Amino acid sequence: MTSSDGLPPLRAVIAEHGLAARRALGQNFLLDLNLTARIARLAGDLAGCDVLEVGPGPGGLTRALLAAGARHVLAVEKDARCLPALEQIAARWPGRLSVLHADALAAGDPLARLTPPVRIVANLPYNIGTELLVRWLTPDAWPPAWTSLTLMFQKEVAERIVARPGTKAYGRLAVLAQWRCDARIVMTLPPEAFTPPPKVHSAVVHLVALPAPRHPADPAVLSRVVAAAFNQRRKMLRSSLKGLAPDIGDRLLSAGIDPTSRAEEVSIAQFAALAREIAA
After folding, report:
1. 182 and 267 part of one domain
2. Whole-angstrom Cα distance, residue 67 to residue 56?
3. pTM of the model
């Protein structure tokens, strides 16, 4: 029995190669090829694009990306058990899939291996997803090497990425993402969609890089301000940010922020204004 792409069903691939998911690697495999095809569509038109995928596992999403017309896919996979399954996919689409056997957190810059335009599409291992996202949102130069990110997270993390000021989910991740991107949740998935089922729901977030940040600010200063503010989010800003400047109260007022406000009440524009005040 084969799937519409001429390859075996994913359950057969997992059985053939002994790919039982490992919790230590944050693995939860998405085996429904209809769902992986939908994620590939949500990434936009892939024709003429190189795609970076992290954590392909048995290759369900990899197959969908290639079937959707991706010019080239670079799949970064830490688990050596998955390599034979990915080699079968590479043989099905000659010259269009490269596999990098590496830990994504220690693999240098895989994006340098790709030719623009580049999209990043991945069902990220839960244990490294947030760290990878922050790296992609904070490159040395902007606009980044990628044009969009279409990424699977725990639903709680996805909600933090798209959260608005005044909500409990609003925090550092929302500011970093929305300062430089348009971000929205485009798909949600229940635990039973995965093998093994995680204990939480999941969601796909689609982020499109803006040509320039929404508000001018030095990225390093903004990151420092936001981290300090949300590290003590229950405190008033005049207290949580006092280590950034001796006259932080005056600087908050100059940025249009009430010093008695708390971090979750401050907009991205206000954080950027405060970063400019502190940098000055």
Report:
1. no
2. 15
3. 0.95
